[in-house]
Description:
By secondary structure, the protein is mainly alpha-helical.
Amino acid sequence: MRYDFNDELTSKLYEAILKLETKEECALFLEDLCTISEIKALAQRLEVAKCLEKQEIYSEIAAKTGASTATISRVSRCINYGAGGYKIILDRLEDK
């Protein structure tokens, strides 16, 4: 199920993120916007997605990332049935 995140405030957040030009600017913005735990959780989910794309097994991913099996399962569902955001970013990171 997709949620509608396209309200005015969320749209402004997306626009703000798109204005960031460097990794340093992104880090500063996220540090002000999120807690350290939230940033680390986002980074962990991205790493889990990378591992799932390589078809690593859950126990290996959990040991490598520290993510719970519930988090790994959630990321897996998003990759397989979600909006496609993980695929977009993983493809772009791979092209780097």
